[in-house]
Specification:
Shape: rod-shaped
Strand order of the largest sheet: 1-2-3-4-5
Helix content: 25-40%
Number of strands: 10
Largest sheet: 5 strands, antiparallel
Structural class: alpha+beta
Order of helices and strands: HHHEEEEEEEEEE
Strand content: 25-35%
Radius of gyration: 35 Å
């Protein structure tokens, strides 16, 4: 004979749910966890952006501006004459050519002590230009501008709000310059990259022949004439 099992139907089909207090507690815990995850993600995003900013990957033009100061310094050190253009936003640099690179007809090749006519003879020099493009904020380096402005390197792709070149107020044989980068997303965020370079001094008293130079002091390397027409700025 099969025994009978008593079943409590009330316990099987109980409609008892969560109390209001339990729901409120669960909701509160869920909100705490959710806000914690949101804060953690926001912190991670801020850290990522800051890391990219510091590394220069977010704004490569800022890195380019910093690196270009090395190129500018080297170019200024090799020049012997300079002309300011575009209100200081650019500079033209005259560089003496190496003997091996001088064109046919150049004078003074292999002369131990240069004759007077060696200096300022156009065929013995080339002019270069470093300047900011106002339209884009880019920084260009033009090569041999006496032959035109078609050959250039772009040192900074853009975002330069200002560029300045000038002789030092105390020493005319020192060139001071500054590049100012401006954050395109946050205009108030700017960074300046200044520099100064002691350039070549040239004696003032040049005698004819191979007698050398007289002791006439030094001539400032700034000239208002002789430079080719300026390339675009």
């Amino acid at each position: 004979m099969v025994p009978k099992i008593a079943i409590d139907r009330k316990s099987c089909f109980s409609n008892k749910g969560f109390t209001l207090a339990e729901v409120l507690i669960a909701s509160a815990l869920s909100m705490i966890i959710l806000f914690g995850l949101i804060a953690l993600d926001a912190s991670r995003m801020r850290l990522t952006v800051q890391t990219q900013y510091n590394a220069g990957t977010q704004y490569p033009e800022r890195n380019e501006a910093a690196v270009s100061t090395i190129r500018i310094t080297r170019e200024l050190e090799q020049g012997d004459r300079f002309t300011i253009i575009a209100g200081g936003a650019g500079i033209q640099i005259r560089r003496p050519m190496m003997a091996a690179n001088l064109p046919a007809g150049a004078t003074c090749v292999g002369v131990p002590v240069p004759d007077a006519e060696c200096f300022d003879a156009p065929q013995n020099y080339q002019w270069f230009q470093i300047s900011r493009l106002a339209a884009t904020g880019a920084l260009r380096y033009y090569r041999n501008i006496g032959a035109g402005c078609g050959t250039f390197d772009t040192l900074v792709q853009g975002d330069l709000s200002a560029v300045s070149f000038a002789p030092d107020g105390q020493d005319p044989n020192v060139v001071v310059y500054s590049l100012t980068w401006q954050n395109p997303d946050t205009p108030a965020d700017i960074m300046a990259f200044p520099g100064e370079v002691a350039v070549r001094g040239r004696t003032m008293g040049i005698t004819a022949g191979d007698a050398g130079v007289t002791t006439g002091g030094f001539q400032a390397p700034w000239t208002a004439g002789g430079a080719p027409a300026a390339c675009p700025t």
